[in-house]
Amino acid sequence: MKSKIGGLFKTVACAAAVSCAAFSFTSAAEAETLRVGTEATYAPFEFAADDGSLTGFDVELIRAIGKEAGYDDVQVINMPFDGLIPAIMTSQIDVIIAAMTITPERAERVDFTDPYYTSGLSVLIREDTASKYPNIDALKGQTLCAQIGSTGAFTAEKLSPGKVKAFNTEPEAFMELKAGGCEGVVNDRPINLYFLSQSNASDGVTEINEVLTAEKYGIAVRKGNTELLEKLNTGLKNARENGTYDQIYQKWFKLAPKD
Ligand code: GLN
Questions:
Q1: Which domain holds residue 242?
Q2: Are residues 179 and 236 in the same domain?
């Protein structure tokens, strides 16, 4: 009898207190939110639409996979590219999707899902230097631009040790190339091609017709978070099987998927 009254009192107190109701709502919502980090100046994979919302191939893919994996809410958070792995290691985010290449060095710090996209590096130069740089080798030792912490920056450093200008975002690297501050931008090819398709921004810029390396993009989770990794791999597999992956691919690349 005593405990029944106690229980009843507790229920009434909880229902009456706004903070109690708000608290239980918050914890339930948090349990179902997937916190995703990205670097949103990397069109067509992740960028801000005119209304400020984040969009692109990766953003739509992780929303679809998150839904598939049972998350009510997929929250996409913009941060610097070289801050993404530190943010996941300190649990500020649960997942990274950022056109991030699976590399052995990164795989020591995070776990990657199965690859979701095959990419490669290419180099943009100014049109007026095209005859000087018929291939990538010709750029060796020249000042190059790239994004901080990217595979493009690592490759540029191998081509021109100590002569790489690294920027937080790729658009800054493109601007520096146009302004004559470097001779080439080493970057992921699909982003270079998208940039070249934007007529005004890319006027006077062209691509050296050579692909440097094959790279595979993966979605990263905290090292050892196998439960989430499995959910994402299943979600990715389902998205490939039920046509969602193809639909998103068509929207952003207008071609049949290669992989
Ligand atoms: N794919 C490249 C890398 O992983 C570039 C990614 C990016 O700049 N968003 O380093």
A1: 10-116+218-253
A2: no
Q: Could you tell me the distance, in angstroms and rounded to a whole number, from the CA of residue 147 to the centre of ligand 1?
A: 8
Distance CA 71, CA 32 (A): 5
Q: Which atom of ligand 1 is nearest to the CA of 150?
A: 10
Please report the pLDDT score of residue 258 as a whole number: 57
Split at pLDDT 50, 70, 90, the class of 64 is very high
Residues with CB under 6 A from ligand 1: 39, 42, 81, 98-101, 147, 150-151, 188, 215
pTM higher than the cut 0.90: no
| Rounded to 5°, angle at Cα 59 from 121 and 219 | 60
Residue 213, CA distances (Å) to 115, 120, 121, 258 in order? 16, 5, 6, 16
- Is residue 258, in this structure, part of any structural domain at all? no
Distance from the alpha carbon of residue 194 to the mean position of ligand 1, in angstroms:
15
Say if CB 101 and CB 151 are below 8 A apart: yes
The mean pLDDT of the chain is: 89
252 Cα: distance to centroid of ligand 1 (angstroms): 18
CA 14 to ligand 1 centroid distance, Å? 49
- Residue 196: predicted pLDDT: 94
